[in-house]
Structures are given as structure tokens and as C-alpha cells.
């Protein structure tokens, strides 16, 4: 059984069919890609799986457990960590606080601990902080731990968002355009960080990306989405040579 | 600290100020408190004769502001009084005890932090108790200011830490005030509404905390009326819902003849003396500060700054909002109960728009997302509004203008987004 399985998922925004009959099966430890032109519905698929929207039809299971109808935070704590296309950070919080916050579902000291500052709370907060530092080191951003996010460069913020998603302790990591707006230097770093995280934590990764080079190098299998429908699925080579994909990106040759 | 940053922004004047401040940068909180304690003892001993000698007639109640505004001729005398009784003794003692104070602070911190914190609190309590014992008016201002700190901080939880604009504080205050008053008046006072007292007044020590808790719990339950809509509504719309809540509570009590309707409830037993107020407010500030500094409490900030991200990072946003509202309302309710027993009279008209404006002003004047801010806001606003009392109607021009200026130059308030770190406050300054 696959780790994450999506079967026949369809979603309408009013009369607009955003996603049609989408299927996905990700095995543990796989890196999968989702590509497609702007407005194809890639982010919508992320939002449907992570519970931001509830699909009109279809089923989604993680390790055989149904995800539909669950709340976002519940789905996240079941093991789906994600980043966002446009950074969604908490502007008044420090980097370390960001990573700590993603441990919310692991907190056991409860309200009593929060109100009265029990020893159990300080013990657990210390454990969480230690873990957060470890994750920040993993993405190479530990030296920014005590800074407010508003003071940091864009490339670092992307890494922080990833470390935050990892603090959820995900079985599968969703990356929504992890290299958007990055320069070639930062792009290279991001690629090695993703590889490093994948090797270190052994989790599955599902990513949306526009940079073909990036996707082709990283992913084992790739899906191409156009107008909410998967038109091609396969290994990077198969996708590169698929005439439908080429048509979707570059248009049809006039002669044919 | 603040003075230090000022020097970098140039100006000979600020430079001189920094120079004058220089000897005091290493003074620990302990030394300051000892200095303040000595000053109030001094006032107790020689305040009256000194005031008489200076031609002030009586001890200036609030650092002479009221006197200065009433009779400008007394300005020099009042300044001399403040210098001789407060500023010089505090400065001299704080300076002289700098090294001893630092050593003592360091030594105290070898024990659990609570020990040192308690000693500081006892010193603060002693100082204020003696300061407030000079006359009833000063004592009343002191108690109301402390209650204002509690109420301001409770609203800051919602408006500052969680970033919703809530206008429901007067409603929570009313629920708390009436909740606590009904218990105390019906059982411990000879009142023409509830009849003669059933139990002796000496039970107050045990019953008053319970009455306050009941008031707080009623307010917390009432807050669900605002908390549940907040799951789906934000911003202006929630502000309107919360404002509606205030009006509902007010009209509800106005029409509830059992508790006196619009005439209000009076003859509350005299239970809320300074000691009681001090203990409750300290407890409230301590618990609220604990909460907002935990990861669980920081979830409020996450919900404020980006709710979608908070949800995706496993934060249960609904629970967070509900806890925040109930928690905030609970402390506002406690504040309301104390308020009713300090004034020993409540009526529904007290908890209207005027009260709301006052609390909001304190929150935004002091600073959002900050315990320091709430303390500074509540103390500043209360002292200012008492000190400017002789100006009568002009007071309500000066205070709003001040508020506007604060909003222009520091849009989030005087001391916003600053953590209240008890350890840093009581630690030696070296």
C-alpha cells in the first residue's frame, strides 16, 4: 500500500472545474514532482490534500487512514508538512519560534503548564528548542535562530519555511515551488538541501516546480497537469519526450 | 537602555541626559526598590512637616501635579517636594547600594527564581502600601490603577497578541462585576434588594476569591458569544460582533430587576483593599505572562500573523481562539469583580462605550503584544487622567491629543512587541 493515495479526486469552485479525476500514489521515501502551466491547478491539489479545501469527489488516504473531512491541523499532525508558494511566515516571530510553533501538536504540558509555568513545561520547551536547532542546522540556517524573519534574505526564508514544515515530523513533505524567485546560486543550494533532507530524514517529498532542470534532476516520477487534468505521468525522460507535455508548454507546431 | 539608543540619534541634550544616567546603568531592580521603599518611609516620617514648610498645606497626592495645575504659584514648592522626597533619596540610595544590590541579586538567583521574584514583589508591595496609606484618594487611585493593569493586559491578549479587534471588554467587566457582587451583596451586606446579611463579614477572606472566580467564569462563558463567531469572522466584522456583545450585556443587566436594573447594585462589603487587589493583579499578570511566553501562547501570534500557516503547522486555531477569548474574558471578569468592590457600587451604565474607549486607549497607548506595554499604558493613562483632573473639560482634549501623537509616532504603542522577562528584570545588572 502506498503512503499517500489519492483516488479520483475532483473539485469544483462553483461552476469551475479546478481538478478532474486526479490520482496519485506516493510510496515512502519517493520524490515526486508536479508540473504544469500557470493556473493548471497544482496548488489547488496541494490545498485539497492538506485540507484547506474539501474535494467535491474522491478519496485521499495517508497510510490507509482517510483524510477527507479532517481539519488542516489534524492532517498536518498526521504527517503532512508543507511550504507555501508565497512565503507564509509569522512576521513578528523569531526564526526559532517558527520552528518551535510547528511542534504544537506534540505539546503535552497543556494549558495548566502554559498558565503556571510548570517544570514539565520548561522541560518540554527545552526539548522542542533543541530539536528546532537541529532542524535549523539541517537546512543551514541555525545562525539566524534568534532573528526576526522580517530581517532575513529571501533564500534563507525559504529554508526556514522548510525547516518549519519538517518540525511537524512529516512522513511526506509538500514543497510548493521551493525555488520561486531564487537566483542560480540559491537554487543550487536549495537542491542540495532538499537532497540532504531527503537522505537524512528518509521522508517522501512531493513538489510543485516550474524550473524543469530542478524537477528533472530531483524527481523519480513526474506528473504534468493541464487545466486540472493529468495529461502525462512518468519518469523525467518520458515527460521530456512526451508530445502532449511539449504542446502544453510550447504550443502546437503549425504544420501538424 | 532607551536613553542609550537615544544618544546614537545625536543631540547634545540627550547626550547630557545619557551622561546623567550613566552612574545608574548598573543599578539592579533590587536597589531601585529599596530606594523607593526608603523614599516612601521618608515621606511617612517628614512628608507632612516638609509640605507644610514649603507652603503646600498637605502632602501632594500624585507627585504634586494636581496642586501645580490648581495653583500654579505652588509649582516650585511642589517640584522641591518631589525632588527632596522621591528623586534625590531614590537616586542616592540606588547609587549607593549598586554593588551590594547586584551581589544580593546574584546571590538570590542561586535559589529558584521564585524566591527572588517574591522578595522583589514584597518590596514593591510594601512600598506601594506605605505610599498609598497617606490618604484615601491616593489609595483609591492606586487600586484602580492596578485593576486597570489587569484589564488592559486581558484585552491585549485579544487585540495585541491575537490581533483581533475586540470591543467586548466592558461586557466581560460587567459580567464579572455583577457575578461577584451578587454573591457578596446577597449574603454579606444589609441591602434593601437582597435583605439583611446572612453570614458574618469575616468570611470575606474565603468567600471573596470564590466570588471573584465565579465572576471570572461567568465572563469566560459569556465570551463564547464572541469566540465562536471568531472561527469564521475576522477584522471589522468581529469588532462589530464584540461591540454588540457589550451592548447586549449592558441592556440585559439594565432589564434585570433582580440585580437592581439600571439603578445598579450597591453596598458591596469592603473586601477589595490594596493587599487583595495587589495579590490578584500580580497573579493575573504572572499567569498571563506565562501563557503568552509559552509555545502554546505564541500560537496566538501565529494565528494573528498568518492563520493558514498556523493551521498547516498543526496549530489548532479554533481551540487557540477559544482559549484566548475565554482566558482574556476570565481576567477581565476578575478585574470587574475587583472594580465593583473597590467602588462598592456598580451600575450598568458604567460598562458602556466610555469604559471601552478607556481600556482601548490604555492598550494602544501602552503597546500591543506586550506586558510592559499594558503596565505602562494602564499606569500612564490612569495617572495622567487623575493628574489632569483640575483641567476639567480640557483634560479630554489633552489626553486624546496625546493618544493621537503616540499613534502617529509609534503606531503600535509605546512599548510594543517586547517580552516581559522576569529573570532579566530581577537579575543583577553587570
Describe, in plain words, how this protein is organized in 3D:
The complex is a heterodimer of chains A (256) and B (430). In chain A, 40% of the residues lie in helices and 23% in strands. With 256 residues, chain A is of the alpha/beta class. In chain A, the strands form two sheets. In chain A, strands 6-7-8-3-9-10 form a six-stranded mixed beta sheet, with helices on both faces. In chain A, strand 9 and strand 10 (229-234) form a beta hairpin. Chain A is globular and about 75 Å long. With 430 residues, chain B is mostly helical. Chain B is 71% helix and 1% strand. In chain B, helix 7 (113-132) packs across helix 8 (136-161). Chains A and B meet through helix 2, helix 3, helix 4, helix 5 and helix 6 of A and helix 13, helix 14, helix 15 and helix 16 of B.
Structural class of chain A: alpha/beta
Helical content of chain A (DSSP H or I, runs of 4+): 25-40%
- Given helix and strand content, the structural type of chain B is mainly alpha
Number of helices of chain A: 10
Biggest sheet strand order of chain A reads 6-7-8-3-9-10
The CATH superfamily of chain A is identified as P-loop containing nucleotide triphosphate hydrolases
Distance between the termini of chain A: 42 Å
CATH topology-level fold name of chain A? Rossmann fold
* Series of secondary-structure elements of chain B, N-terminal to C-terminal: HHHHHHHHHHHHEHHHHEHHHH
CATH class of chain A: Alpha Beta
* Cα-atom radius of gyration of chain B: 23 Å
CATH topology of the largest domain in chain B: ABC transporter involved in vitamin B12 uptake, BtuC
Number of strands of chain B: 2
CATH class assignment of the largest domain in chain B: Mainly Alpha
Largest sheet of chain B, in brief, is: 2 strands, antiparallel
Helix fraction of chain B, binned, reads: over 70%
**How is the biggest beta sheet of chain A arranged?**
6 strands, mixed
- The overall number of domains of chain A is 1
The total tally of domains of chain B equals 2
Instruction: State the largest interface.
Output: A-B, 37 and 28 residues
Amino acid at each position: 500500500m502506498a503512503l499517500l493515495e489519492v483516488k479520483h479526486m475532483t473539485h469544483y469552485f462553483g461552476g469551475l472545474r479546478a481538478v478532474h479525476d486526479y490520482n496519485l500514489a506516493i510510496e515512502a521515501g519517493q520524490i515526486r514532482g508536479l508540473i504544469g502551466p500557470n493556473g493548471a491547478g497544482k496548488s489547488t491539489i496541494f490545498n485539497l490534500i492538506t485540507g484547506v479545501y474539501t474535494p467535491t469527489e474522491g478519496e485521499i488516504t495517508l497510510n490507509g487512514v482517510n483524510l477527507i473531512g479532517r481539519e488542516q491541523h489534524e492532517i498536518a499532525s498526521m504527517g503532512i508538512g508543507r511550504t507555501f508558494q508565497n512565503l507564509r511566515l509569522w512576521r513578528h516571530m523569531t526564526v526559532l519560534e517558527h520552528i518551535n510553533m510547528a511542534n504544537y501538536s506534540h505539546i503535552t504540558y497543556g494549558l495548566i503548564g502554559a498558565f503556571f509555568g510548570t517544570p514539565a513545561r520548561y522541560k518540554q520547551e527545552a526539548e522542542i528548542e533543541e530539536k528546532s536547532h537541529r532542524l535549523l542546522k539541517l537546512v543551514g540556517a541555525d545562525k539566524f535562530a534568534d532573528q526576526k524573519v522580517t530581517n532575513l534574505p529571501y533564500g534563507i526564508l525559504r529554508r526556514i519555511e522548510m525547516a518549519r514544515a519538517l518540525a511537524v515530523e512529516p512522513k511526506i513533505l509538500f514543497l510548493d515551488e521551493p525555488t520561486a524567485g531564487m537566483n542560480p546560486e540559491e537554487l543550487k543550494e536549495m537542491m542540495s538541501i532538499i537532497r540532504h533532507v531527503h537522505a537524512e530524514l528518509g521522508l517522501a517529498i512531493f513538489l510543485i516546480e516550474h524550473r524543469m532542470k530542478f524537477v528533472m534532476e530531483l524527481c523519480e516520477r513526474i506528473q504534468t497537469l493541464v487545466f486540472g487534468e493529468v495529461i502525462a505521468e512518468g519518469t523525467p525522460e518520458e515527460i521530456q519526450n512526451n508530445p502532449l507535455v511539449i504542446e502544453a508548454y510550447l504550443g502546437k507546431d503549425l504544420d501538424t | 537602555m532607551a536613553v542609550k539608543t537615544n544618544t546614537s540619534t545625536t543631540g547634545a541634550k540627550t547626550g547630557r541626559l545619557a551622561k546623567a544616567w550613566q552612574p545608574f546603568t548598573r543599578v539592579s531592580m533590587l536597589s531601585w526598590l529599596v530606594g523607593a521603599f526608603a523614599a516612601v518611609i521618608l515621606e511617612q516620617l517628614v512628608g507632612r512637616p516638609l509640605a507644610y514648610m514649603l507652603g503646600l498645606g498637605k502632602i501632594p497626592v500624585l507627585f504634586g501635579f494636581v496642586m501645580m495645575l490648581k495653583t500654579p504659584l505652588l509649582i516650585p514648592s511642589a517640584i522641591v517636594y518631589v525632588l527632596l522626597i522621591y528623586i534625590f533619596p531614590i537616586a542616592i540610595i540606588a547609587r549607593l547600594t549598586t554593588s551590594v544590590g547586584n551581589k544580593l541579586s546574584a546571590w538570590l538567583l542561586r535559589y529558584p527564581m521564585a524566591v527572588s521574584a517574591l522578595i522583589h514583589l514584597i518590596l514593591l508591595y510594601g512600598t506601594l502600601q506605605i505610599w498609598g496609606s497617606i490618604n484615601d484618594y491616593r489609595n483609591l487611585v492606586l487600586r484602580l490603577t492596578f485593576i486597570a493593569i489587569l484589564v488592559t493586559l486581558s484585552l491585549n491578549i485579544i487585540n495585541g497578541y491575537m490581533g483581533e479587534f475586540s470591543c467586548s471588554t466592558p461586557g466581560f467587566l460587567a459580567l464579572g462585576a455583577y457575578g461577584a457582587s451578587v454573591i457578596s451583596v446577597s449574603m454579606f451586606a444589609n441591602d434593601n434588594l437582597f435583605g439583611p446579611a446572612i453570614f458574618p463579614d469575616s468570611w470575606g477572606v474565603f468567600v471573596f476569591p470564590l466570588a471573584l472566580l465565579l465572576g471570572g467564569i461567568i465572563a469566560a462563558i459569556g465570551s463564547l458569544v464572541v469566540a465562536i463567531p471568531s472561527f469564521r469572522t475576522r477584522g471589522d466584522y468581529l469588532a462589530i460582533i464584540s461591540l454588540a456583545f457589550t451592548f447586549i450585556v449592558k441592556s440585559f443587566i439594565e432589564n434585570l430587576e433582580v440585580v437592581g436594573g439600571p439603578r445598579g447594585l450597591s453596598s458591596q462589603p469592603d473586601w477589595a483593599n490594596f493587599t487583595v487587589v495587589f495579590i490578584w493583579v500580580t497573579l493575573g499578570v504572572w499567569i498571563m505572562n506565562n501563557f503568552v511566553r509559552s509555545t502554546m501562547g505564541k500560537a496566538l501570534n501565529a494565528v494573528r500573523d498568518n492563520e493558514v500557516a498556523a493551521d498547516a503547522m498543526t496549530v489548532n486555531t479554533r481551540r487557540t481562539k477559544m482559549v484566548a477569548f475565554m482566558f482574556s474574558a476570565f481576567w477581565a471578569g476578575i478585574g470587574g469583580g475587583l472594580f465593583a468592590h473597590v467602588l462598592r457600587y456598580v451600575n450598568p451604565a458604567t460598562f458602556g462605550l466610555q469604559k471601552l474607549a478607556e481600556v482601548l486607549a490604555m492598550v494602544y497607548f501602552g503597546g500591543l503584544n506586550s506586558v510592559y506595554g499594558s503596565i505602562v499604558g494602564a499606569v500612564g493613562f490612569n495617572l495622567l487622567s487623575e493628574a489632569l483632573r483640575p483641567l476639567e473639560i480640557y483634560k479630554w482634549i489633552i489626553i486624546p491629543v496625546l493618544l493621537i501623537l503616540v499613534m502617529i509616532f509609534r503606531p503600535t504603542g509605546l512599548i510594543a512587541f517586547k517580552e516581559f522577562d522576569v529573570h532579566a528584570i530581577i537579575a543583577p545588572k553587570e
